[in-house]
Amino acid sequence: MKTDIEIAQSAEMLPISEVAKQLSISEDDLELYGRYKAKLSDALLKKTAANPDGKLILVTAVNPTPAGEGKTTTSIGLGQAFGQLGKKAALALREPSLGPCFGIKGGAAGGGMAQVVPMEDLNLHFTGDFHAITAANNLLAALLDNHMHQGNALGIDPRQIVFKRCLDMNDRALRNLVVGLGGKADGIVREDHFVITVASEVMAILCLAEDMQDLKRRLAKIIVAYTFDGTPVTADDLHAAGAMAALLKDAIKPNLIQTLEHTPAIVHGGPFANIAHGCNSVRATKAALKLADFVITEAGFGADLGAEKFFDIKCRKAGLHPDCVVLVATIRALKYNGGVPKAMLSDENLPALAQGIVNLEKHIENLKQYRVPIVVTLNAFATDTKAETDFVAAFCQERGCSFALSKVWEQGGKGGIALAERVLEALAGQESHFQPLYPDTLGLKEKIETIATKIYGADGVTYSPSAEKSLTKMTELGMGDFPVCIAKTQYSLSDDPAKTGRPSGFTVHVREAYASAGAGFVVVILGAMMTMPGLPKAPAAHAIDVDENDRIIGLF
Length: 556
Known about the structure:
Blueprint: H1 4-9, H2 16-21, E1 30-32, E2 38-40, H3 42-47, E3 55-61, H4 71-84, E4 89-93, H5 98-102, E5 110-111, E6 114-117, H6 119-123, H7 129-149, E7 156-161, E8 165-167, E9 177-179, E10 190-192, E11 194-196, H8 201-208, H9 212-220, E12 223-227, E13 232-234, H10 241-247, E14 255-259, E15 264-267, H11 282-291, E16 294-298, H12 303-318, E17 324-329, H13 331-337, H14 350-356, H15 358-368, E18 374-379, H16 386-398, E19 402-406, H17 408-411, H18 417-429, H19 444-456, E20 460-463, H20 465-476, E21 484-487, E22 507-516, E23 521-526, E24 545-546, E25 552-553
Parallel strand pairs: 3-16, 3-17, 4-15, 4-16, 8-11, 17-18, 18-19, 20-22, 21-23
Antiparallel strand pairs: 1-2, 2-14, 5-6, 6-14, 7-12, 9-10, 12-13, 14-15, 22-23, 24-25
């Protein structure tokens, strides 16, 4: 059986200018990066702004397990299925981070016969967007330290520096470090930290900005530190926003590539959903809505993370109105939630499936709170039995959800036609009455507690003294109406990765809270969640190489 990269490398891609024609985009509106990648020009986004919006379809999933769920694969396969049905469709996806590519999770190009290509380009440097974000972030960090070295005219308290450097790589040694060691010319000695680029505020800002002017306004609002008297110091105070914007001038433009079946895919931005807001850029989604009749987007990890943030942060901030949500599960993942070891997931086990399906049940209940039509799909595996599939189908239908089996990994768009038909039926027969989970006027702690109780199923929330103090200060600074972006483990509805299924009788603990004032939300960190991942004992990087024909191998 071919690997994902072998399938992708054997694909016959169309020139990207031909793919663009499906969305009525002329070559003059493309900024080409070779034959198969392009950025959409600002002129195109402006002249299509008056077009009517297409239908917005979110793809989300149950909590991830070692068995795999295939949310991105399903998203891509669904887009290809719309193409098979003759619909004018586009994908709006995130770019992969180098951290997981060389770590353990993998890339974000889909799999099997449902992939976006060129796959190796996308999973590696692509069009350089992440490098630009890293550079802009670290320019601000350098300007901050330089300001302090040059006399600290703003009176910055070195113990209250909150802005962190970033790198798009898993590197646990950079989580906590000391900078400025050496002589007087080497800067101020202080503790410093790194986050992975996809968790940086600059990434969030790029993904939420409407245009260059909005980007600059948001960059200027980044809080980098506090003075000795507690006054916030911003990027604007350091005169950094203009130079940062210059580094991001091209990165803010959405990227266009194609699927294996030549469906247009607008891929842009890549915040993680466990430690950031987990959605592709607002510009990419809005561009797709103006260019296509049906837009399929996805949000990272389970619906308790990516979908919640898509609805409560991205849709709220960008004025988006989703029309349908597709919830992805697998028989294997549900049995894993029922206590079956990974090595035994191929065996039929209806009792374990019945025990583990409560995870799917909770996600259905959560999504219903947003008042958007729901279609549940099973990403099919060869080991699934008819009895198991029938059990899940009946379970979903009893809860008022449409159901479809998806075979896109094996069959591409053809294997997603049943799912596409269910989605079209939902769009035609059920009206979306989307509303966020909580109003802006709710206090920060009340927003956290609303998500914890209504989405995670927690009994309540506890706070560290420092988190309590930070939330109070942010409220005093006028950020009380911000949405909250909760960072927690993706493996459980709780903040404990070991609690699979549908845990109950637990509380979640807020360890830390800080403002992403430019992004316009407050970050809340639960439990032991880290914003700079580490590599596993056997990283995926060990298998990646370049062969004698200059072809990348071992990349999934």
